[in-house]
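Example (one chain per record):
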Amino acid sequence: MKKNNVKRNSIIIGLLNLLMDLKLYGVIAVIYYTKVAGNMTLGMSAFSITMIASALFELPTGVISDKVGRKKTVILGTIASLTYSIIFALSKNYVWLVLGAIFEGVEIAFFSGNNNALLYDTLKEESREEEYSKYLGKTNSMYQVASILGGLAGGIILYFTSYEIIMWISVIPKLLNVIISLFIYEPKVFTENKNNIYSQAINSIKLVFKNKTLLKQVVADSISEGVGESTYQFRSKFYEMLWPEWALGIPGVLANIGLFLANWFSDKILKKVKNTTIMIGGYIYSFLSNLIGALLNNIWSPLVLVTNSVIPTNIVKEEISQKLYTDEYRASMASIKSLISSISMAIFFLLVGIIADNFGVVYTLAIMQCFKLIVILIYVNIFKTNKELIK
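Predicted structure:
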């Protein structure tokens, strides 16, 4: 019976991830936002507002998860997801765009620390925590399946219809997610935290800042995610300069195929390659491939940019994080980490828009990669001072 609970929740989490990221408009998101907002800086600011909203709600939603349970938190997240997708479809001006971005930030906040905690708690109930990276890789690979399907289908739908129709069709997966979330099994290893919300938040913050290794990782990952997410969303403007509109989704599809393979086979990869090699080597290659791809600025550039997707760095860093969190404050500590990353992403989204409006697309992509050198140095220090994290 216990084994069925692990299987049940892993399948449901995988489906939630698949439908959550099945955004048919993903390939043209920055173009659509810019069209609605009127210029690139305001268009990119929609992404920034999402991250700011996510940051504001990160800690409260993490505390909610630790107090009322993982299942109820997922349900609330799916409702926020459905709400923002409808608002985006209705958007006719920048105000609507901002409102949709806020609800998308709420969705991210509900899911960020909670869903991984749900998976970890389900495994912990059966004393199978060592299988976390395996199941995390499988469930996270559904994000890439969603992006692949969304990129292919979105390009086809755009060719025959319009941006508005793509936005409305993207509402359907969100509605299905609300229904699916009702079937989650709440692991009994979860026990309601008796602290009030204020105490829960304060204690979680103290635990994060007392753990020097976790604090270093928070800084490194916030920079990495800020640079990575902002430039990933911005790439379509770069692709638009080099490839026809109907082909804009192809680089994203290829990147997500690589990410899917990296996540799906992460357990096998981690058995053969040290996590230090994956993290340090992966970030170095990401820096070089993105820099070279941007500076080449030719028809081959999009293909160069997607080659770093086959390295499962996200699985390794998430496994490290879970080892550094405490059981009682697992979701709350994860939310604090996500909060700082969200603030970082908000800043980088605005920075990308400002640099692009003043210096152009190519220089923007090249300049942003330099921040990854800081991430590399921090992770070198983490592994050097914490031998127990090396395996």
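Caption: The mean pLDDT is 84.
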